[in-house]
Structures are given as structure tokens and as C-alpha cells.
């Protein structure tokens, strides 16, 4: 069974262990949704190991690894560890600062270029002729 070492945005100086049967070494740096108390939180996977210091009966299962966006690269994780140690700040709070605001909530679906589809209406096609040739609006409509 894979054990995730997760950094949570909390004022506590340690990472937290969660079980995840589908996790592997390639998941390091990805976000993960985990139960914490009565709520769920987004964390960053710092490591995937095969054992934990937490007894198996107290180990909680991760709700899911969020693979919808690329994870933090190894260099960024090293920088997070360095900043946490150097400034004596909890690693979870430092890791949370490395994430863009849109990735800190699990409900938001990221749109990619493949997901986006636009269709120019008849009104938009007729509006092209009325716009100046170098107009930004005209370039957008023509695209």
C-alpha cells in the first residue's frame, strides 16, 4: 500500500500521512484531496512511501489525487523544503503559497484549449466589416 506524505495549508510544522492504493512515484508534486477533521482539504504530495510511522488503524485514506493539472516540479519542491527550513515556517503553508489560487480549491475545473470551443454568430460575422482593420476586436473575431 502506498503512503502519501502530504503538506497541508495549516500552521503545523509537519506533513501528514494518508493511504492511497493508486499512488505512485510519479504523483509527487500533485495536489491531493484529503480528509482533515470534519472537512476536506487540498494538499501537495511531498513523497510516496511504502510505510508510515502512523499505525495502520489510524491512517486515513486520501479522497483522490487531482491529476487535472500538472504537479509542482522537483526543483520547486526542493525550494519549498528549503524555504520552510530557512524561515522556520510550516511546510504546508509554504507549499500553498507555491500554488496558483485557482488550484487551491477542488471544485474548479481547469479549462484547456482542447476543452474550449467558440462559434462566431451571424451578428459577429457582420460586425467584422464595421471594425477598423487594426482593431483588437476585429482580430479576435477573425481568429
Shape: elongated
Uncertain ranges? none
Distance between the termini: 50 Å
Identify the quaternary structure here. Answer: single chain
Average pLDDT confidence is 88
Structural class: alpha+beta
- Report strand %: 15-25%
| Strand adjacency order, main sheet | 5-2-1-4-3-6
Number of strands: 6
Could you estimate the helical fraction of the residues in percent? 10-25%
Question: Could you give the order of the helices and strands?
Answer: EEEEEEHHHH
Count of individual helical segments: 4
- From the alpha carbons, calculate the radius of gyration and give it in angstroms: 22 Å
Major sheet description: 6 strands, mixed
Note down, in words, how this protein is organized.
The protein is built from four helices and six strands, in the order E-E-E-E-E-E-H-H-H-H. The protein has helices at about 75-85, 90-95, 120-130, 135-140, and strands at about 5-10, 15-20, 30-35, 40-50, 60, 65. A hairpin with a 7-residue loop joins strand 1 and strand 2 (about 15-20). Helix 3 (about 120-130) crosses helix 4 (about 135-140). The protein is elongated, with a radius of gyration of 22 Å.
Summarize the structure in short.
It is built from 4 helices and 6 strands.
Q: Which structural traits does this protein have?
A:
24% helix; alpha+beta; six-stranded mixed β-sheet
Summarize the helices and strands and which ones pair or pack:
Elements: E1 3-8, E2 16-19, E3 31-36, E4 39-49, E5 60-61, E6 64-66, H1 74-86, H2 91-97, H3 122-128, H4 136-142
Amino acid at each position: 500500500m502506498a503512503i502519501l506524505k502530504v503538506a497541508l495549508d495549516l500552521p503545523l510544522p509537519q506533513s501528514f500521512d494518508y493511504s492511497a492504493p493508486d499512488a505512485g512515484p510519479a504523483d509527487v508534486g500533485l495536489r491531493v484531496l484529503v480528509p482533515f477533521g470534519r472537512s476536506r482539504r487540498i494538499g501537495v504530495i511531498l513523497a510516496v512511501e511504502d510505510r508510515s510511522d502512523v499505525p495502520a488503524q489510524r491512517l486515513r485514506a486520501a479522497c483522490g489525487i487531482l491529476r487535472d493539472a500538472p504537479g509542482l516540479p522537483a526543483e520547486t519542491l526542493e525550494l519549498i523544503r528549503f524555504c520552510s527550513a530557512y524561515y522556520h515556517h510550516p511546510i504546508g503553508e509554504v507549499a500553498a503559497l507555491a500554488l496558483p489560487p485557482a488550484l487551491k480549491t477542488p471544485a474548479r475545473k481547469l479549462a484547456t484549449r482542447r476543452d474550449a470551443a467558440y462559434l462566431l454568430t451571424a451578428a459577429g460575422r457582420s460586425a467584422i466589416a464595421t471594425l477598423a482593420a487594426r482593431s483588437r476586436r476585429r482580430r479576435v473575431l477573425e481568429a
